[in-house]
Specification:
It is an enzyme of class 3 (hydrolase). The chain is of the alpha+beta class. The chain has helices spanning about 1-15, 25-30, 85-95, 110-120, 130-135, 140-165, 170-185, 250-265, 275-285, and strands at about 20, 45-50, 55-60, 75, 100-105, 125-130, 195-200, 220-225, 230, 235, 235-245, 300, 310, 325-330, 330-335, 340, 345-350, 355, 365.
Length: about 375
């Protein structure tokens, strides 16, 4: 853990970031091994450019600090909200923050924590530390990659068990609920990557469809986007299936998306721009005449969060490095008819992209999995 904090301190120096404030989430967990829930009681980890750390937290959470391998000074408060400001002031005094600007995660820090921190910062304020923190978790070590691989295995096993029990007339919600049960049975942590997307027929044309009461019927395309967690690391996979005879155009776009997925995974390696992966996938779909129906980027970073750096979009000039992990998930979506997305999880190596997911990518008949 201390090595990770040292890495952050180096990044803070590069970005001239005098201090960092983190509330509960993957980055705090990555640095300390501590898990806290976002709730009405504020919890904030403070780190200075000099490497000093302080943690403001409710007194009832102090038991979590017993076995952490790094030194963190704790400042607690009781369930009486009136005791919170004192804890923040004591932490700031311990760190010598004075009028020090603090960097925060723009997508995670809440007004609640910023309100208490603002009172102790005086004329100082908050900085967007997103760029600084992006480099902290973007490259994974061997242990992290193994956990991501296991999360992928769990997710794939769970889907295969779910597919065996799907029947005509089941709703998207029912299939999604069965998938959640199978994910937990297969060994996923209780906090999944996200709520599974299960979409039948025309609903599969919505990339982020929400499971509904729409029932499965003959001639439907079935799209599933799901993931598992394993020891804090996630998987995120998408596959599509047919139920009976579907519109021939849906089979056609399935073949195109498969080629686009293959092209994206073949294009990546250390030393090239992230945007090159997107361009390789996108070119296949555009050449087939469906460019306007590919409505999102080719992928996103994956690790302790389902969406993190690096983001795989056309103009991203970020140079890929060994250990970076992300998704490759091209798609084609035809409004009112259906859509296909094929998503794999990959890790960058010196010579290419190693794929952590190996479930068949073709758009296969659902019947071939049922009753196995």
């Amino acid at each position: 853990m201390q090595e990770r904090i040292n890495k952050l301190i180096k990044l803070m120096a590069e970005f001239t970031m005098p201090g960092i404030a983190l509330n509960p989430g993957p980055t705090l967990n990555y640095l300390t091994g501590l898990n806290f829930h976002l709730m009405e009681r504020p919890t904030v980890l403070l780190i200075t450019a000099g490497g000093q750390t302080a943690l403001v937290l409710p007194a009832l959470e102090t038991g979590k600090l017993a076995d952490i391998p790094i030194k963190i000074e704790a400042f607690t408060y009781s369930d009486d909200p009136e005791t919170r400001p004192e804890a923040f002031f004591r932490a700031a005094d311990y760190l010598g923050l004075g009028s020090t600007d603090l960097g925060v995660e723009a997508t995670r820090m809440r007004y609640l924590e910023m309100m208490y921190l603002g009172d102790v910062l005086g004329e100082a304020g908050f900085l967007d530390a997103s760029a600084c923190l992006a480099g902290l978790r973007m490259t994974k070590d061997e242990t992290e990659i193994k956990k991501m691989h296991q999360a992928a295995i769990i997710a794939q096993d769970a889907l295969l068990e779910t597919l065996k029990g799907i029947k005509a007339g089941m709703t998207e919600k029912e299939v999604a609920n069965q998938l959640i049960i199978q994910l937990l049975r297969a060994g996923s942590g209780p906090e999944l990557s996200f709520s599974p997307i299960v979409a039948f027929g025309e609903n599969s044309a919505n990339p982020h469809s929400t499971p509904s009461d729409r029932r499965l019927k003959e001639g439907d395309l079935l799209l599933v986007d799901w993931g598992a967690s394993y020891e804090g690391y996630l998987s995120d996979i998408t596959r599509a299936f047919t139920f009976g005879e579907v519109d021939p155009e849906l089979l056609k776009i399935g073949e195109i998306v498969l080629r686009a997925n293959q092209a994206g995974r073949a294009a990546g390696r250390a030393g090239i721009e992230a945007g090159s992966v997107d361009r390789a996938s996108r070119a296949v779909i555009e050449e087939a005449g469906y460019g306007e129906a590919f409505t999102h980027r080719t992928g996103h970073g994956l690790g302790m969060e389902a969406h993190e750096e690096p983001y795989i979009f056309e103009n991203n000039a970020l140079v890929l490095e060994p250990g970076m992990t992300f998704t490759v998930e091209p798609g084609i979506y035809l409004a009112g008819k259906g859509g296909v997305r094929i998503e794999d999880n990959v890790v960058v190596t010196e010579t290419g992209l190693e794929t952590l997911t190996d479930l068949p990518r073709q758009v296969l008949p659902l019947e071939s999995f049922m009753g196995l």
